[in-house]
Amino acid sequence: MIEVVDVTKRYGQHLALDRVSFKVDKGEILGFLGPNGAGKSTTMNIIAGYLPLTEGTVTVDGLDVLDDAAEVRRKIGYLPEVPPLYGDMTVDEYYRFVSRIKFVPRNERKSNIDEVMERVQITNVRKRLIRNLSKGYRQRVGLGAAMIGNPEVLILDEPTVGLDPKQIIEIRNLIKELGKTHTVILSSHILPEVSAVCERIVIINQGRIVASDTPENLSARLGGGKDLVIRVPGQAQPALDILAGITDITDVEVSGEREPDTVDLIIKSERDIRRDVFSAFARAELPILTMKPNDLTLEEIFIQVTSQEGIGNASSLS
Amino acid sequence: MLAVYLKDLSAYFRTLTGYVFMSVFLLVSSIFFVTGNVVSASPNYNSTLGNLLFVFILVVPILTMRSMSDEVAHKTDRLLYTAPISLTDVVLGKYFAAVTVFALTLLITCLYPLSLSFFGEIAVWEIVGGTIGIFLLGCVSIAIGIFMSSLTDNIVNAAISTFGALLAVVFIDSFRSIFPVEINPNAVFAAFLVLAVALWIYWLTRSLFAGAAVAVLGLAAVGLIYWLQPQFFQGFVFHLLGWFTVFYHFSNFKMGLLTLSSVVYYLSFVIVVLFLTVRTLEKRRWS
User: Fold this and answer.
1) Is the ipTM of this structure higher than 0.90?
2) Where in the sequence is the domain holding B189, given as residue range(s)?
């Protein structure tokens, strides 16, 4: 649906994007992750047709964003970082304006606006001036504006910023719901959000894509999936003695006390050793309080990838 | 275009801008009317209209300062530029919205000569011609204001530069006669003008080649004309500045002369300035 090929963007001497390439399939939700200033918003601005690119091509549904600009813009709904709202308009007036400039047919405007308001839950404030709305409501008005005209592609730049936890969950569910019928690209620096909503993640740092995969694969590739974390009561030494009796353990690391009077151990191994660990501790009558695979959280992946330009740059592009 | 037009038109009356413009314009014009026509019992309304020119310098910046700059400042330009409407639609919508507010205000001032007509004979057609002239002049001033507004994202800068540009246009008529008419200084000025244009082209395209090509070709042309047809440069600056004597053309209207050439002049001036506005906005996005 969206194809970004070798896109480079320069601001004077500053290289904002360096040969960025990725693809988004129809009906996919792609998460865009990166520290501030990494080039997330620039990439989104380019796809939405707000900024021109210096080199490379971007196509949406086979149409070039520069050559067929008007046609492409009909297919895209865009929520920029700062929602483009007119404070002196009511929500109703604003949505009518947006549906006019998006060429929504006259007879569909009212039903389209009502439906969008219902979905982002702002029907109760439709007669109020946008200026007087809270940050959360404004964010939702902006999200709704992107949805007007029912575009096939939604580009959402930090859609949940400024919302309270309850609203964040509502908007996340809404985006998931939208993902069934739309192609969605969303950026965020809230990592659990991306892993909860997105099917695929692109991590960008200093204008370059450093990783691109599903959240699970990213985690597995970095974490080595067979490692275990266990928590046992008391000191580390008795546990270490028990573990010494199990074959195929390559390394044991004491990671410290996370809970009073317990100790956490990270056990590295090439094979699945959960049964052996369980039986060994059961025989020694030392209870295992927690046992879980040592998957990296997205936070850890993010820090690893963006701080050391890790996991195979070009090979990870899909 | 209609969507942007309606949005901006209603914005003028949702915010204070439209009311400030109307009240200042009507206040100053009524002072001119009362002193020029009522107190002095003069039926010559067109001299009052002539005085309104100076009101333009004051109030047009109020009308146009927000037009483009506010969109950029509030980042709503992202909505306009990523919608399927064209940049020309945006500029024209904004332009016609400002012109509409101005036209409404001018319509109210038509009450002045109407009230005069109850007390004596007035030269109806002369006044109609004068009013049309004022309207066209307003259209030109508003186009200049919109252009200035597209150059900056700060409304104060937009207002002040519009003020300065209109002031320059008003004084250009008396100002241009101080330039020498001899051939040599005018030829030198033409050469500098070519260099300035070349620099501007370079700034627009960021291509050293394009700028250098314009400079070389332009200077060659100036040299060739100087060699073959030196009298071309006789009063060159004077004639060049003559293109910008927007207010000079008004003197015809003031006498009730609605000449086609003046109307065409005003309309083409508006079209050129609005075209430049669209190009500037595009250029600002590309850089």
Assistant:
1) no
2) 183-234
Same domain, B230 and B142: no
Instruction: Give the end of a domain, one of B192, B214, B234.
Output: B234
State mean pLDDT over B27-54.
85
As a whole number of angstroms, the distance between CA A97 and CA A78 comes to 15
The total number of structural domains in chain B stands at 2
Which residue of chain A is at minimal alpha-carbon distance from B283?
A52
B14 touches chain A (CB under 8 A): yes
Query: Residue B239 falls within a domain, yes or no?
Result: no
pLDDT-based confidence at A309, cuts 50/70/90?
Answer: very low
Give yes or no: residues B114 and B209 share one domain.
Answer: no
List pLDDT tens digits, range B181-214.
788 888 888 888 889 988 888 877 777 888 888 8
Residues of A in contact with B6 (CB under 8 A): 97, 100
| pLDDT tens digits, A37-55 | 788 899 999 999 898 888 9
B115 touches chain A (CB under 8 A): no
Q: Are residues B159 and B227 in the same domain?
A: no
A236/A262 Cα distance (integer angstroms): 8
Of A80, A82, A101, the CB nearest to B83: A101
Of A317, A297, A307, the closest CA to residue A38 belongs to: A307
pTM of the model: 0.82
Closest-CA residue of B relative to A80 is B78
The 3-state DSSP class for residue B247 equals coil
Q: Which pLDDT score, from 0 to 100, does residue A295 have? A: 65
Our CA-based measurement puts residue B84 at a distance from the nearest CA of chain A, in whole angstroms, of 5
**Alpha helices (H) along A3-48:** 40-48
Q: B79 and A98: CB-CB below 8 Å?
A: yes
Residue B173 lies in a domain: yes
The encoded tokens of residue B23 equal 């009240």
Contact A228, A253 (CB under 8 A): no
Same domain, B15 and B82: yes
CA A108 to CA A99: how far, in whole Å?
A: 9
Whether chain B has a CB inside 8 Å of the CB on A100: the answer is: yes
Instruction: For residues B118 and B130, state if they share a domain.
Output: yes
Residue B254 counted as domain residue: yes
Q: Which of A50, A70, A97 sits opposite B78 (nearest CB)?
A: A50
Look-up of token digits 């500029």:
B91
- Residue A157 with chain B: CB contacts under 8 Å: none
Residues B164 and B32 in one domain: yes
**Closest alpha carbon to A188 in A308, A36, A26:** A36
pLDDT digits (tens, 9 = 90+) for B99-118: 999 999 999 999 988 888 88
B276 part of a folded domain: yes
Kindly determine whether residue A76 and residue B14, on different chains, have CB atoms separated by under 8 Å: no
A87:B7 CB<8 A: no
CA distance A47 to A27: 17
Pick from B6, B15, B83: CB nearest A73 = B83
Do B220 and B86 share a structural domain? no
Q: Is B80 on the interface with A (CB under 8 A)?
A: yes
Question: Which residues of B fall within a CB distance of 8 Å from A89?
Answer: 7, 11, 14
Are residues B253 and B134 in contact, defined by beta-carbon separation less than 8 angstroms? yes
For residues B140 and B24, state if they share a domain: yes
